[in-house]
Design a protein that fits this description.
This protein has 3 helices and 4 strands. The chain has helices spanning about 30-65, 75-85, 105-120; strands at about 10-15, 25, 95, 105. The radius of gyration is 26 Å and the shape is rod-shaped. Helix 1 (about 30-65) crosses helix 2 (about 75-85). With about 120 residues, the chain is mainly α.
Length: about 120
């Protein structure tokens, strides 16, 4: 993965002790390499966190769509963990409910998933 501008390479002269010609070795500076390595690690951590959040939102969408029991512990856990992330999107679009009210199509959750996908692509 390439991050930012190409790194200018520095020349290092290695002189052998046997009297042979000196060897010129060209390699990137260590400081720039460590900085890029750190940036890549941070990007991977952010990508992992966004993937976990995306999975939780997908579980919420499927649970609501299939009309799972809202009193089930798993359903409550998914609901509680995703509400802080859906806070901005709740009531953005009205949810579509079935006649019995069990099956709910949450458009807001789908929109939040799309926003997360856009963020992960960048």
């Amino acid at each position: 993965m390439i991050v930012g501008e190409p790194i200018p390479k520095e020349q290092t002269v290695i002189e052998p002790s046997t009297g042979e010609k000196p060897v010129i070795k060209v390699e990137p500076p260590q400081v720039s390499y460590e900085k890029e390595k750190r940036i890549i690690i941070y990007k991977r951590i952010l990508w992992y966190v966004l993937s976990v959040l995306e999975s939780l939102l997908a579980f919420r969408f499927i649970i609501k769509l299939l009309g799972a029991n809202p009193n089930n512990l798993f359903s409550i856990l998914i609901e509680i963990t995703t509400i802080p992330f859906l806070f901005i999107f709740i009531n953005l679009f009205p949810p579509a409910s079935s006649i019995t009210g069990n099956l709910v199509l949450e458009w807001s959750t789908l929109f939040a998933l799309q926003v997360l996908q856009t963020q992960k692509a960048n």
